[in-house]
Amino acid sequence: MKPFRFTAPDASERDMHEAVARALKAVIRKPAFWCAYPAGVVQLSPAQAAAYSRFGLKTGMPDFQIWYNGIWLIELKTGKGQLTRTRIVKTRQGALREIVGQVERIEELRATGTVRDIAICRSVAQVIDQCERWQIPLKGRIAA
Predict the structure, then answer these.
(1) Are 115 and 71 a contacting pair, CB within 8 Å?
(2) Which three-class secondary structure state does DSSP give residue 32?
(3) Calpha distance 88→51 (Å, rounded)
(4) Is residue 47 part of a domain?
(5) How far apart, in whole angstroms, are the C-alpha atoms of residue 106 and residue 61?
(6) In CATH, what number is assigned to the domain containing residue 37?
(7) Is CB count within 10 Å lower at the N or C end of the chain?
(8) Closest by alpha carbon to 40, among 19, 58, 22?
(9) Model confidence pLDDT, tens digit, residues 17-38
(10) Residue 16 to residues 57, 77, 101, 104: CA-CA distances in angstroms?
(11) 28 lies in a domain?
């Protein structure tokens, strides 16, 4: 019999997304600018997903973008979550639809020449540490 051990549950990606947004709001200092791309955080109905797709919403986009001397991207993952890959799905009408995954979308974004780096983070602390490594201006810290 295995010994009993307590393990902390993983926070949901939605909870982590909200916590990271609160943290970035509190620590990012101008002239740096950040925003979220929260499309993957909520479950869209098929009709909503189709409408957003027609309006230009892209699949596979990183969760957070920071603009400061280039564009820095952060993808949040919980537990052992991995980047998604492009897949083909059938619509209700039977048509085939390509859903571009994170791996391929990140390659597209890097090819633009504007993305400085992308990080996969699993906690608020990792996000803040990454911002420090990227030398993003943070409140309470001396700019590099």
Answers:
(1) yes
(2) coil
(3) 18
(4) yes
(5) 7
(6) 3.40.1350
(7) N
(8) 58
(9) 999 999 999 999 999 999 999 8
(10) 22, 9, 21, 24
(11) yes
The pTM for the full model equals: 0.84
- Residue type (1 letter), 26: A
Give the rounded distance of the alpha carbon of 121 from its chain centre.
Answer: 9
Q: Characterize the bridge pairing of strands 71-76 and 115-121.
A: parallel
The whole domain housing 128 covers 13-133
- Alpha-helix runs per DSSP H in the chain: 13-27, 46-55, 102-111, 124-133
Q: Which residues, listed in sequence order, are joined to residue 34 by a DSSP beta bridge? A: 66
Convert the pLDDT of each residue in 62-86 to its tens digit.
Answer: 999 999 999 999 999 998 899 999 9
**Torsion sign (Cα): 89, 61, 16, 6:** positive
